[in-house]
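Students often ask what a holo structure prediction actually looks like on paper. The answer is less mysterious than it sounds. You provide the chain, you provide the ligand, and the output is a string of discrete structure tokens encoding the 3D arrangement of the protein together with glutamic acid.
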Amino acid sequence: MSVVTRFPPSPTGFMHVGNARTALFNWLYARHNNGKFVVRIEDTDRKRHSEEAVQVIMNALEWLELDYDGEVTSQFSHLDRHAEVAKEMVANGQAYYCYSTPEELDEMREKARAEGRKTFYDRRWRDADPSTAPKDVSPVVRIKAPMNGSTTIHDKVQGEVTVANDQLDDFIILRSDGTPTYMLSVVVDDHDMGVTHVIRGDDHLNNTFRQKIIFDAMGWDVPIFAHLPLLHGADGAKFSKRHGAQSISEFKEMGYLPEALANYLLRLGWSHGDEEIIPRDKAIEWFDFDHVGKAPAKFDFKKLENLNSHYINEADTEHLLKHAKPFFIERLGFEPSGVGLERLIAGIDELKSRAKTLLQFVDEAAFYIKDIPFSYDEKAQKNIDESQDVLPVLLERFEEHDGDFTSDFIQETCKDVADKMREGKLGKVAMPLRAALTGTTVSPSIFHAAEILGKEESCARIRAVL
Ligand code: GLU
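The corresponding structure tokens follow.
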């Protein structure tokens, strides 16, 4: 069997990390099996539909590098087909027209409640003679759900799950205005798209029993189901806004690399021994359902940050700068180029080894590409103000130096000046130097940084603060 998995988001205007994890698991299972991963936009709610909302989802998939097979399909464009299937089911005796009015349904429910019974539709039209149908009521179509026995799903994650059929009602598959319900649309689309594996959040498990009735009624192959436990926050409650970032765009804006987030989402609820760092190729090779946990996975921002540090440190320059570019533009108003870019690349290893996020990377790299005069943060300014005696001496020593302007020379000079003017406290010289050269008090080794800036630029920056 050739595997086909699917990702059917409702375009709500944002892509939740939980949804992204579902997409990732579907994608990995398809790629692991050399199968197909298809995307279907569940856009039948036209009141809330917008192209921008669809684009948010497509952008998130692209950012996470989850490519799909074939064209993206729109559920809305299949509604006629769904309605046809409903009618076919009526013709086959698997579904029926129900003419009960809303008033009758209310009455039915009230009576059931009073008698302590389930408030399900009482199936009065299930076997009624069609010639008794009222002319002035547009009927809905209801499925003939099995009334006895039980229904069992062999879920790849949850195991065997059974419900008694008396828990399932004759639910509506076609509304009186001729539009299909979600339950029908999903099944027809999954069938028509050849979906073999439905991998989704376990909040859909209850729907699965109803959807199976439709598959069975049409005589269609029932896909294999895998229901993933939902995400929780550290406190064990359902993962929500109060735990922190929720949408893929928020994580992107916080400076996470897509491969770090993808690695983290994979580890959320799936494991391969003790492996924490799982690059994409290994993820494809190793992914299976056997190691998906049954318990809800707790979202841990600290672990994500650790992975992000790792991936920033491993990233090649081109990849890192591509993802850092929007942050440079946001923070500085321009992207690195020319001599600034050359300096940044010369210092990139140290910047990478320090950064937990792309924001930190960009903030610490900024001094390489900024031109004087630039601004000094409060602490830097204080250091500069307190060192108006030290900085001119340092400047003079740098200016009169003829040899290579190396980090060793710069460090030795700072030590010497510290011995003479600051009781040997190197920090009292290195920190104001850092403040003058970077505008901050946080940076990679200032001796390396000064070497990369070069003698001329370093001296110019010191002069600018004197
Ligand atoms: N559109 C549904 C959702 O976003 C998908 C349900 C499914 O996977 O069948 O929750």
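The domain at 78-228 is CATH 3.40.50.620 (Rossmann fold).
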